[in-house]
């Protein structure tokens, strides 16, 4: 093959994300080679490249032909299922690669797998990136948010490509070099955890508006459309408005009411909560959203519990709470509660990232992370620009909650937030995400907590000792003796 015919980059793994990302790369003017274990997907992608604008994309049917069709130093993106398939694909492709070539895993991979593969690649002289890709099918095709971590040299080799392929916002492309090791995968994992939180909080806003406010789907669509013009403007709020508008083709009313209330998941939310626990970082809103997915899965048990508790005398208080509610005020309160809850959820996600960054020496730039999430990805939102600015004002910000701008916003919204949570509690409508965020806020902002009592208990039964507020040192007290033998 002549040198001129070589592709600039390759992509292996042509499921939905792979096909769309490959077409995106080609459309941005970078000739790309594609490969898939099952060759029919290569042909499918070739067909799409033709019909979607005669894009510069060539299909290859063996790992060898695929690799040899790429110009050196080669960069190859892999988009296959996380775990063993990535190792198998790397083995098949790297057999034909040469020192200086780069492997880029674009899957939702566990960051430690990436760190292992970085070492394995290094042993062969290969460079490696673990690159988080967010934005689903549409984002992959038209502009995702990209989170590449690993070899800086490897990043520089593809910088011009990823900067064109990524979503574009007013302050640049939604991609940046995240850091060394598995940082790209880790950041993508926390992004997904934050996404769980956002979706949970929106579903709670829906639940309260629907059941406490009595809003119809038509009204909900209007409210979410309106919210999408203000501080809550975001992809998730926008698509939520659309969801309420879709009629059920099999019957009366809207499709949303016919969907089984059991949430699926692929694991990144669980990893986020596990990592939070490992690093001793509180992430209650994200944990609540994960717990809610687990509980949603117990559909039969929940239906049974509803019945058993009704028989035991449980009353439905929704109607009585609803009768006392000013609908207009509730809608405005829920908007504020959602916003304040989101700030706390993002504060948790960012603080988890900071803890990991310190542990791994990744030197993460939180303002940049907020910036590359402004476009392309599922959590894209206008509000991320405010987070970016908060970290630009103070890169060592202890928590978003104490950024002067966000602090003001929290104070302005807290009365509405408390009203919503209070109403939901009295109506028996569970709002675990909003409650978790509010409790996080109220715990974090209090200079004195009842942890003194917990320390006393620990010292009483386990001689774990305690410190005092008024003098230096470590103390132990014979609590029981002093309490019971007063004389
Ligand atoms: P396939 O089309 O040959 O199944 C999502 O499943 C993508 O991952 C598909 O492109 C799939 O290829 C690929 N994939 C899954 N397991 C794989 C493996 N062990 N080796 C190579 N590709 C794999």
Helix and strand element order: EHEHEHEHEHEHEHEEHHHHHHHHHHHHHH
What's the N-to-C terminus distance?
A: 98 Å
What's the overall average pLDDT, rounded? 96
Within the largest sheet, what's the order of strands? Answer: 3-2-1-4-5-6-7
CATH superfamily of the largest domain, by name, is: N-(1-d-carboxylethyl)-l-norvaline Dehydrogenase, domain 2
**Could you say which structural class the secondary elements and strand pairing correspond to?**
alpha/beta
Domains, number: 3
> What is the CATH topology classification name of the largest domain?
N-(1-d-carboxylethyl)-l-norvaline Dehydrogenase, domain 2
Largest sheet: 7 strands, mixed
Outline:
globular
The residue fraction in helices comes out at: 55-70%
Number of helices: 21
Bound molecules: adenosine-2'-monophosphate
Q: Please compute the radius of gyration using only Cα atoms.
A: 26 Å
Which residue ranges are poorly predicted, with pLDDT under 50 across at least 5 consecutive positions? none
Beta-strand fraction estimate: 5-15%
CATH class of the largest domain: Mainly Alpha
Structure description:
The strands form 2 sheets. The chain has a 7-stranded mixed sheet with strand order 3-2-1-4-5-6-7, sandwiched between helices. The protein has a two-stranded antiparallel ribbon with strand order 8-9. The chain is 57% helix and 8% strand. The chain has 487 residues and is of the alpha/beta class. The chain has helices at 16-27, 40-51, 63-68, 84-94, 111-123, 136-142, 152-165, 183-212, 217-227, 235-245, 268-278, 284-296, 299-311, 318-323, 327-360, 366-372, 383-393, 404-427, 432-444, 451-462, 479-484; strands at residues 9-12, 32-35, 57-60, 75-78, 102-105, 127-134, 145-150, 168-169, 172-173. It folds into 3 domains: 9-181, Rossmann fold, CATH 3.40.50; 188-444, N-(1-d-carboxylethyl)-l-norvaline Dehydrogenase, domain 2 (Orthogonal Bundle), CATH 1.10.1040; 451-483, 6-Phosphogluconate Dehydrogenase, domain 3 (Single alpha-helices involved in coiled-coils or other helix-helix interfaces), CATH 1.20.5.320. α9 (217-227) runs antiparallel to α10 (235-245) and α15 packs across α19 (432-444). The N and C termini lie far apart (98 Å). The longest helix is centred in the last third of the chain and has 34 residues, at 327-360. It binds adenosine-2'-monophosphate.
């Amino acid at each position: 093959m002549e040198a001129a015919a070589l592709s600039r980059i390759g992509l292996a793994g042509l499921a939905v994300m792979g096909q769309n990302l490959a077409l995106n790369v080609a459309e941005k003017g970078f000739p790309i080679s594609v490969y898939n274990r099952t060759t029919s997907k290569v042909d499918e992608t070739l067909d799409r490249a033709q019909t979607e604008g005669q894009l510069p994309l060539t299909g290859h049917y063996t790992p060898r032909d695929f690799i040899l069709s790429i110009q050196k130093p080669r960069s190859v993106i892999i988009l296959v299922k996380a775990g063993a398939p990535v190792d198998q694909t790397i083995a098949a492709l790297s057999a034909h690669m040469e020192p200086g070539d780069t492997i880029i895993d674009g899957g939702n991979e566990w960051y430690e797998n990436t760190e292992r593969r970085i070492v394995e690649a290094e042993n062969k002289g290969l460079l490696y990136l673990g690159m988080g890709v967010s934005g689903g099918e549409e984002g992959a095709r038209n502009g995702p948010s990209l989170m590449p971590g690993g070899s800086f040299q490897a990043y520089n080799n593809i910088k011009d490509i990823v900067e064109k392929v990524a979503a574009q916002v007013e302050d640049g492309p939604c991609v940046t070099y995240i850091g060394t090791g598995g940082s790209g995968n880790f950041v993508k994992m926390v992004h997904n955890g934050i996404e769980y939180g956002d979706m949970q909080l929106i579903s709670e806003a829906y639940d309260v508006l629907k059941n406490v406010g009595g809003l119809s789907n038509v009204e909900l669509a209007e409210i979410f459309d309106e919210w999408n013009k203000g501080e809550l403007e975001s992809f998730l709020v926008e698509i939520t408005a659309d969801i309420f508008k879709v009629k059920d083709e099999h019957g009366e009313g809207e499709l949303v009411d016919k969907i089984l209330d059991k949430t699926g998941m692929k694991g990144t939310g669980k990893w986020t909560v596990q990592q939070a626990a490992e690093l001793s970082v509180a992430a209650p809103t994200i944990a609540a959203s994960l717990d809610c997915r687990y509980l949603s899965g117990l559909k039969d048990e929940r239906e049974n519990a509803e019945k058993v508790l009704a028989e035991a005398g449980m009353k439905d208080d929704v109607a009585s709470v609803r009768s006392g509610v000013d609908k207009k005020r509730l809608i405005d309160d829920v908007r504020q509660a959602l916003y304040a809850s989101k700030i706390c959820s993002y504060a948790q996600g960012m603080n988890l990232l900071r803890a990991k960054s310190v542990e791994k020496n990744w030197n993460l730039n939180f303002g940049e992370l907020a910036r590359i999430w402004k476009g392309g990805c599922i959590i894209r939102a206008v509000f991320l620009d405010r987070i970016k600015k908060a970290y630009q004002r103070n890169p060592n910000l202890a928590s978003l909650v104490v950024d002067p701008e966000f602090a003001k916003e929290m104070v302005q919204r807290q009365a509405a937030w408390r009203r919503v949570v209070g109403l939901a509690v009295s109506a028996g409508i569970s709002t675990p995400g909003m409650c978790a965020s509010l409790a996080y806020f109220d715990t974090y902002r209090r200079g004195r907590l009842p942890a003194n009592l917990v320390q006393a208990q620990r010292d009483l039964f386990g001689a774990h000792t305690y410190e005092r507020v008024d003098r230096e040192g470590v103390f132990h007290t014979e609590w029981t003796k002093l309490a019971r033998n007063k004389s």
